[in-house]
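Its record is set out here:
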Amino acid sequence: MTQGKRIYALDTNVLLHDPTALFRFEEHDVYIPMTVLEELDEKKKGGSEVARNARQASRFLNELIEHGNGHSIADGLELINPQGLNLRRAEKVGRLHFQQRATRTSGKADNQILDAVLDVREQHADARVVLVTKDINLRIKATIFGIAAEDYENDRALDDFSLLFTGSAELAEDFWDRHPGLRSWTEQGRTWYEVKPEKDEQWYPNQCLYLPGENSVEMRVISVTEDAARMVLLDDHTHANHSVWGIAARNREQNFALNVLMDPEIDFVTLLGNAGTGKTLMTLAAGLAQVMDQQRYREIIMTRATVSVGEDIGFLPGTEEEKMTPWMGALTDNLEVLTDSEDGGSWGRAATNDLLASRIKIRSLNFMRGRTFLNRYVIIDEAQNLTSKQMKTLVTRAGPGTKIVCLGNVEQIDTPYLTETTSGLTYAVDRFKDWPHSAHITLRRGERSRLADFAAEAL
């Protein structure tokens, strides 16, 4: 190994999380303990995301061995990026090394990996050896043994979650004075504005802007260039006359959300907020209004990340929809609110529920691969539990005329090895913020009850 290089020893969970991790360390070398290969072999069976990643990691390793034909494995195999992968190519590439000696430790796999890392550190005393693992307990063990240990952070969307795009921004009080050349006009019953953004005004397409106070104004950015930003006044869904399927916005962020949910030009919406902020209720109301009244979409498809994500749901009886029903408490609870009409009595409500149920389909994430949704309104609940790869798999299912809405609360991540900054929901918000057909709103204020609001703050 070249002096000055670092050696990154990879734990199994890193490759199960991201098989392309082999090629993410630029000019530095990668070390694979034998225990990792054994665990990959154990995990490769099945149709889950973990099994698919295990098989892909094994394929990459096999391709590297075949590409290095004629070169000794003991000297390391050149880490050539596989064809078709959109990876940043470093000027120099590292080498892949495998464990050459048997471990002195038997028993738990973590201890064998630590023993292998200690062994490679003894062999290459001039190099810095780092164990990369998503297992926090293994990192603690490694630190006790004096081994440098790090989390795998290449898939991190942001360094700090507080920097995540919120989807809305407050304008300066002197906004109108700062833009004397502002142009306004009325078109198709809506008021439009065009201004030249100043250096401190960094706006994104479909970002919602507001001026608080007596003369409050709420606008949405439609397009942004260096020379001009075009904005349109938002519809006021806080008034009962402009409610969506009987649901009126109770605060500013909810009004922003209903505006982007009802806009047919926006194909992808992400709503992020704590429990009780109205994410599911507003999304369902907007979906029903556009499916039943406007007939813009054929039906609503609702899915969510079940815990564990992507694992077999065969332990529950019935069809796919019946298996998913226990996970869909949020759907049934909100449908009760949306169908709670005083007119018609119990028979009328039952008929309404049956009608709505016929236009709402519940689907499992397990069977999304390979499907294409045409003219559908797709709701992905609990999206904070998705990895970036799973998010890509779902969003790429969209066919012509389909709208996808992702809902989630990053404070309730249940999937192992995912954090606020590596969640697929965070990843989607950050990657889509520049696209003119997507929108994001962070909901901050809970609207359930004073009990729920106090519990959220005090507990």
Summary: The two ends are 53 Å apart (CA to CA).
